[in-house]
Amino acid sequence: MNFATSLMLIGAELGLCLVALVLLLLSAWLPRAAARVLTIAAASALAGASIYTLALLLNGTAGPDANAFGALLRLDAFSAVAKLLIYLSTFACLVVTPSFFERRGQYRGEYPVLLLFNAVGMSLLVSATDLMTLYIGLELSSLSSYILASFARSDMRSAEAGLKYFILGGLASGILLYGMSLVYGFAGSTNFDAIRTALAGELGTGALFGIVLVFAGLAFKISAVPFHMWTPDVYDGAPTPVTTFFAGAPKIAAVAILTRLSFSAFGEQFAAWQQIVAFVALASIVVGALGAIGQENLKRVLAYSSINNVGFLLIGLATGTAAGVSAMLIYLAIYAVMTLGSFVALLMLHDADGVPMETFGSIAGLAQRKPALAWALLVLMFSLAGIPPLFGFYAKLVVFQAAVDAGLIALATVGIAASVIGAFYYIKFVKVMFFDARPSSDARAEVARNPAGHWSVLAASTVLLSPLGFLLTPAMERWAAAAASALFLTA
Amino acid sequence: MVDLSQYLPILIFLVIALGLSTLFVFLPMATARLTGVYNPTAEKLSEYECGFPAFEDARSQFDVKFYLVAISFIIFDLEAAFLFPWAVSLGVTGWVGWTGMMIFLGILAIGLAYEWKIGALDWD
Questions:
Q1: What is the dihedral sign for C-alpha A64, A477, A219, A53?
Q2: What are the backbone angles phi and psi of residue A356, rounded to the nearest 5°?
Q3: For B110, which of A25, A186, A188 is closest by C-beta distance?
Q4: CA torsion A249→A251→A252→A256, rounded to 10°?
Q5: How near does any CA of chain B get to the CA of A99, in Å?
Q6: Does the reported pTM lie above 0.90?
Q7: Rounded CA gap, A320 and B46, in Å?
Q8: Which of A432, A52, A276, A185 is closest to B7 using CA atoms?
């Protein structure tokens, strides 16, 4: 085994890990005021890791046979693209975090450290080609997520969110492990390619149980219906910067590994898992669209919106074609930008005392008070709803196109119908901001000023989602197609 | 492909164990109800504490420090559990095994240093 090659392939993870360990020690020894410096160091480490991954992708090192450590990890185009998405969205989350916690005097150097460990776990997860590395990556990312959810530990709701996430996440890990042990028992190996060979042909009941349980465990991690119950509570209870993170990078990682697992390990059993994925996709779309209608809290609305979006992502997976996976990756990238932008906009809605404005009532008449913020939210919401001139439309278009090409016309029809229902609450945002009267009582606080970091992330995501985003489509299509075809080379 | 049929006895054993334990729980309950001795009173239902009336509710709060010590214990206990097989097989794994374990111990040492510095090991 060539260690130098293996270490070179996981260079980004190694670098992040080393930086995280050093920052952990620094966070204990330096005064708490240094937390901001540690955040900058962590953000630069993430930027460095993205550049390193991009370089490996561009110089052709990242390929189908770039196996590290005896086929425990693989750096192909698929994992490289997923890693880039993960690093960039984690980077954006680091930029918008400090001022939120500093306003409450809760910011500590441990926050960037946890986020870095989370990023390491997620990038191991997306490049895993073995059930063992899959599980280790998943747990490294989940365990730091549990702590992040309860980061505002003096806040009752944050602590509750962390505990809830921990207990339900532990249950999901248990289900996943049980499924993995069944798969291992029937396939005789934990390696994805070996599992694929062993499970070819007629599928026994035991192995089918294993596959179903593995899908159930991962469906929990991507918060797909019927394993979505925790999502609104955790998203609502966790501090808003943490929710911004949860809705982005961990979801990208879990969807990516679900895709890799489906096509490489269970690739021969497409008929068995297609029904599961199609059902989960349909249920997520419908529940996500209907569940948000009665909600008054904006974070809960966006939590249901993310459940709804996971459904659209899974349509791409359910097609079982390279075109479907490539459509899914395009949707994933655009979804990451949309969710990041909308949560950052939510983060910016607070008064001078830092009290967040989290209900529809509190953003009434926002267009007169903060026109820039209101217009950015308008672009984000119309984009999430998939209204044509905006980039969110393109994401939905490619996914439905792939579904129709693969003959899943019923799934596409229900998806389109549900996205019309879902448009209700996206448009409600716009209606409340632009057409509802500003509350008459002047006691209601003004929206406070926000740091430049927030504005730049919001502006960047708004510009990406505006019709200007369509300039990126040729590049995105090329990358997504390259990444998707990496999964199908083993077929 | 692993031959699972050789594990059939274990499956039967599990089913029997489950059946027996269910029986042990529910048989006395059923017997008591059917023979008419089921007659709960406040005295019978209260918890037994050496013959005294109960002093306090059993569900009291623990100091969080106990959990901290327990978590630290688990980590270092597991470390010891990893060290034994590593030490025994060091002749086979050689320098690669040695380096791997040193990296693992290094990460744990950093964790311990952090824990020490922020005062998680102080009792007061």
A1: positive
A2: -70, 150
A3: A25
A4: 140
A5: 23
A6: no
A7: 61
A8: A185
Chain A residue numbers with beta carbons less than 8 Å from the beta carbon of B118 are 28
Rounded distance between C-alpha atoms, residue A282 and residue A310, angstroms: 10
Distance from the Cα of residue A78 to its chain's centroid:
16
DSSP of A416-461, one letter per residue? Answer: HHHHHHHHHHHHHHHHHHHHSPPPS-TTSPPPPP--HHHHHHHHHH
φ, ψ of residue A67 in degrees (nearest 5)? -90, 140
> What is d(CA A57, CA A64) in angstroms, rounded to the nearest whole number?
11
CA angle A357, A104, A101 (to 5 degrees): 85
pLDDT 10s per residue in chain A (491 long)? 578 888 888 889 999 999 999 999 999 998 888 889 999 999 999 999 999 999 998 888 877 778 888 889 988 889 999 999 999 999 999 999 888 888 888 888 899 999 999 999 999 999 999 999 999 999 999 999 999 999 988 889 999 999 999 999 999 999 999 999 999 999 989 999 899 988 888 888 888 888 888 998 999 889 888 888 889 999 999 999 999 999 999 999 999 999 999 998 888 888 888 888 888 899 899 998 998 888 889 999 999 999 999 999 999 999 988 899 999 999 999 999 999 999 999 988 887 777 788 888 888 888 888 888 899 999 999 999 988 888 999 999 999 999 999 888 988 999 899 889 989 989 988 898 888 877 665 445 567 778 888 898 899 998 888 888 888 888 888 888 888 888 886 54
Tell me if A276 sits within 8 A of A212, measured CB to CB.
Answer: yes
Among A149, A154, A153, A309, smallest CA distance to A235 is for: A149
CA separation for the pair A6, A128 (Å, rounded): 13
Distance in Å, alpha carbon of A183 to nearest chain B alpha carbon: 11
Query: Does the N-terminal peptide bond of residue A226 adopt cis geometry, omega within 30 degrees of 0?
Result: yes
A67-68 and A73-74: which strand pairing?
antiparallel
Tally the residues of chain A: 491
Q: Are A192 and A253 spatial neighbours (Cβ–Cβ below 8 Å)?
A: no
Beta bridge partners of A73: A68, A128
CB contact under 8 A, A188 and B114: no
Residues A397, A375: Cα–Cα separation, whole Å:
24
Determine contact, residues A80/A61, Cβ cutoff 8 Å: no
How far is A195 from chain B, CA to nearest CA, in Å? 10
* Residue A453 · residue A95 · CB < 8 Å: yes
- For residue A24, give the H/E element and its range: helix A11-29
Comparing alpha-carbon positions, the chain A residue that sits nearest to B112 is A25
Per CB-CB distance under 8 Å, the chain A contacts of B1 are 186-188, 198
Contacts 24+ apart (CB under 8 A), A407-413: A408/A278, A408/A315, A408/A318, A408/A319, A411/A278, A411/A281, A411/A282, A411/A315, A411/A318, A412/A315
CB A111 within 8 A of CB A90: no
Q: Do the Cβ atoms of A280 and A225 come closer than 8 Å? A: yes
Which candidate, A391, A387, A400, places its Cα nearest to that of A467? A391
Closest CA to A21 of A109, A135, A86, A142: A109
**DSSP track, A152-182:** STTSHHHHHHHHHHHHHHHHHHHHHHHHHHH
What ipTM describes this predicted complex?
0.82
Chain A residues whose beta carbon lies within 8 Å of the beta carbon of residue B110: 21, 24-25
